[in-house]
UniProtKB/TrEMBL annotation:
The keyword Transport appears for this protein: no
A Pfam family this chain is assigned to: Acetyltransf_1
Organism per entry: Chitinophaga dinghuensis
InterPro entries: Acyl_CoA_acyltransferase, Bact_Acetyltransf, GNAT_dom
Official protein name in the record: Acetyltransferase (GNAT) family protein
Domain N-acetyltransferase positions: 1-146
One MF term in the entry's GO annotations: acyltransferase activity, transferring groups other than amino-acyl groups
CDD domains: NAT_SF (cd04301)
Keywords: Acyltransferase, Transferase
């Protein structure tokens, strides 16, 4: 398995996976919206997307957004999306994508990588905890819908 960074050449394939990722989280399928969103992220360099390749097939992706920590006075990364096609789970793609995310953080002298996942996504939680992520018990997160 190989991990590469997504470019504009991968937009359609990433959009297919991104749409599947969104439906995993109970969103209605919207390939056109997914294609526009991913195209904008890659074109505007708003995020960094890594792809897991098994042979010539893209079987998973991770998308990270750059943020900053005021307390730590450094860059940080939000690992916002991680998805591996169901038929390819358990083969190490998720692990490799998270490890590549960790390397990005090291390469950019970031303070940390953060993520969030649903309480019910226990498979992802096991992966994250096995790879060294710690559950935050000190802070509450609030959202203001617009």
């Amino acid at each position: 398995m190989e991990i590469i960074q997504a470019t504009t050449l991968h937009t359609n394939e990433v959009a297919v996976l991104f749409d599947a990722y969104r439906t995993f989280y109970s969103q209605a399928p919207d390939f056109d919206g997914a294609l526009q969103f991913i195209s904008d992220r890659i074109k505007n360099q708003d995020s960094t997307i890594f792809l897991a390749l098994e042979g010539d097939e893209i079987v998973g992706f991770v998308q990270l957004y750059p943020i900053f920590t005021s307390i730590g006075m450094k860059r940080a990364w939000m690992l916002n999306d991680l998805f591996v096609l169901e038929a390819h789970r358990g083969k190490g793609a998720g692990n490799l994508l998270v490890e590549r995310s960790r390397q990005l953080a090291k390469d950019t002298d970031a303070k940390w990588v953060m993520l969030q996942t649903e309480n019910t996504n226990t498979g992802a939680q096991r992966l994250y905890e096995r790879l060294g992520f710690e559950k935050d018990t000190d802070y509450l997160y609030y959202y203001l819908s617009i």
